[in-house]
């Protein structure tokens, strides 16, 4: 088992990464106060992984389970309200620990519940998708969607610990595994050249779900993300580099109506565009831009926007992105593999040129 | 104008206390980012005080107003949802400042909205009741009620600044003024003997709403509360002394169904019981216990529980209080005027004896 420490003032916590962790009572015990636990999970994950978690926790605490329906459509205040009803109805107090067992949606919902129930109760995250293990489990972003916007309501709230069991990835569909790899490639691209090279040579082994390779990829991703978050917890500055590829990716997701493509797939195509733009602006060597595209291709992720999406679609949708502040568009670009910058130093013509090439038939 | 600084790591803020502050644009300007402001107020306060606030802010920012209905009954997730709808519909972004103009309910609701909108936007509090000025404006407690419990859903969230204009107290009904004075007396009782003596001599002037006396009482109260909160923001320990009189007070409020008596009235009677118990246990001199009762009496606040409420009513209701942890009842008691302790060192018989005397006809 590997352990990473996320160091935030007064709220540091460990991330445990390895196999056979779900059923390990010793991991839970030091993080559970007052011996009362509510496991929140969804209807897909519950039959797969709830049993070992509940058994492990019940050896050290009273444990109850609340199952929410699967799907991003349920990530809203109504679901939050249902969980509050259950917690109050079962006399959960301010020392009850909330455990999130599931992917990013379960984590976001449960984390927000933990942040708000009696103004904050202890929280443990058990991410069961690769994306959640490398992304949503680090950084403390919790929350729900509003009918007019994603993640509009939420809180920054840190867990007591994160338990990333690579065994849970065995049940993950191939497409979701690849979508998680897109975020992993991102960490290499923005701040870890050695990790990027390792990914280039080990991508086959990751796609084969080799547990050691997956554990290493998760470890390096969490380490990179935690270093960024430690510097800038509330995204006042450099935390924005974690959005590499995301402004283009969000435009793709919005254009597709948040269906058809997974988030990681949209981000993958977005990273290729961002690397292209970086090369076009002579910030990045063309050979390095090509390496990014090749690794994404080798992973089996899209390197181009969806068919039919045009340059003008990007330009219109990017104007509405919430990362665009006071009308000035800032993008995350690369100066080399392993080094990202936040820049608004590009002309509309340069951006349009790159978008035209990437959307050309 | 007096200024108190509440010093919390990374989130310090000033409290401005004085007259004619509502219309003072210079107070707002340094605390408003990005020039967009939403004033949240209620239907009672809006016609009285919104005009000067909106005028002052509009000289430095774009300002919009959202009016919620008056009353604790609206302090729930539905009202929160309505405000979110309005904010998203008017394109409020993560730099929009939320200004709470009103009493404790408006402050609690608006603060929770500010804590959760896009995971936190800047927040300014303008408390317009004495209770809100000395209590809810310091300490960062925000939140709403659940149908099964008060303040069950919320966050700790600190404002950019608090503006306490004593002019707003001129429209306050006498009973509410007195209810605010109950919390002021509490600060003297638990940690400020000199302030308690000052209150004994100045209570007439406070009841006459002398602005200088009120400003001094608010200043000392906020100073005391902020010192407690600075030591223990999340109520892990000594912050509990702020609950002096409150466990008994909550029992009274619950017994009355949260109608008839104001919170401050219930707390006043609760402080007399807590002082009686402290004397009964030989922690506190009987003469000091008498001084507390006399000051509460002079203020025109109740010194006894409501007629018909019995010792057994208290004992039953206190068991359900959320401050009772793991079945062990802890109360805030006094060792002298100006010195509170958290104690579970009393027998059931001693508690019952004191409750019997205070509820005897």
Mass-distribution shape of chain A: globular
CATH architecture annotation of the largest domain in chain A: Up-down Bundle
Give the termini separation of chain A. Answer: 47 Å
Class from helix and strand fractions of chain A: alpha/beta
CATH class of the largest domain in chain A: Mainly Alpha
| Order of strands across the main sheet of chain A | 1-2-9-6-5-3-4
CATH superfamily of the largest domain in chain A: Dehydroquinate synthase-like - alpha domain
Q: Could you tell me which chain pair has the largest interface and how many residues each side has?
A: A-B, 35 and 35 residues
Calculate Rg of chain A over CA atoms.
20 Å
Work out the number of β strands of chain A. 11
Q: Which quaternary structure do these chains form? A: homodimer
What does this entry look like structurally?
Two copies of one chain form a homodimer. Helix content of chain A is 46%, strand content 18%. Chain A is of the alpha/beta class and 361 residues long. Chain A folds into two domains: 2-171, Rossmann fold; 182-359, Up-down Bundle (Dehydroquinate synthase-like, alpha domain), CATH 1.20.1090. In chain A, the strands form three sheets. A seven-stranded mixed beta sheet of chain A has the order 1-2-9-6-5-3-4, sandwiched between helices. In chain A, a hairpin with a 2-residue loop joins strand 7 and strand 8 (149-156). The longest helix of chain A is centred in the middle third of the chain and has 21 residues, at 211-231. Chain A is globular, with a radius of gyration of 20 Å. Chain A starts with a strand and ends with a helix. The model of chain A has no long low-confidence stretch (mean pLDDT 94). The interface between A and B is medium-sized, with 35 and 35 residues.
């Amino acid at each position: 088992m590997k352990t990473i420490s996320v160091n935030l003032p007064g709220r540091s916590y460990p991330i445990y990464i390895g196999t056979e962790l779900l059923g390990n009572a010793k991991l839970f015990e030091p993080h559970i106060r007052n011996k009362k636990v509510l496991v929140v999970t969804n209807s897909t994950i519950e039959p797969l992984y709830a049993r070992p978690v509940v058994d492990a926790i019940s050896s050290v605490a009273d444990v109850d389970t609340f199952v929410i329906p699967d799907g991003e459509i349920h990530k809203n205040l109504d679901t939050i309200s249902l969980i509050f009803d259950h917690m109050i109805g079962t006399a959960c107090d301010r020392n009850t620990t909330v455990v999130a067992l599931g992917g990013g949606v379960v984590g976001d919902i449960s984390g927000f519940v933990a942040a708000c129930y009696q103004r904050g109760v202890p929280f443990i995250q058990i991410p069961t998708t690769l994306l959640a293990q490398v992304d949503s489990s680090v950084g403390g972003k919790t929350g729900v969607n509003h009918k007019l916007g994603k993640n509009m309501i939420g809180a920054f709230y840190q867990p007591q610990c994160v338990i990333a069991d690579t065994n849970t990835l065995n049940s993950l569909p191939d497409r979701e595994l690849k979508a998680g790899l897109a975020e992993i490639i991102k960490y290499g691209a923005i701040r870890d050249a050695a990790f990027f090279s390792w990914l280039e040579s080990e991508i086959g082994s990751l796609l084969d779900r080799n547990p050691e390779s997956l554990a290493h990829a998760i470890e390096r991703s969490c380490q990179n993300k935690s270093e960024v978050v430690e510097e800038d917890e509330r995204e006042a500055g450099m935390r924005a580099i974690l959005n590499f590829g995301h402004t283009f990716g969000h435009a793709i997701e919005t254009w597709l109506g948040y269906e058809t493509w997974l988030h990681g797939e949209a981000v993958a195509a977005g990273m290729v565009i961002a690397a292209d733009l970086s090369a076009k602006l002579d910030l990045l060597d063309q050979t390095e831009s090509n390496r990014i595209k090749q690794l994404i291709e080798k992973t089996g992720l899209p390197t181009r926007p969806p068919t039919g999406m045009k340059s003008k679609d990007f330009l219109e949708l990017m104007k509405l992105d919430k990362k665009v502040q006071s009308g000035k568009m800032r993008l995350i670009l690369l100066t080399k593999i392993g080094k990202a910058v936040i820049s608004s130093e590009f002309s509309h013509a340069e951006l349009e040129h790159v978008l035209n090439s990437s959307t050309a038939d």
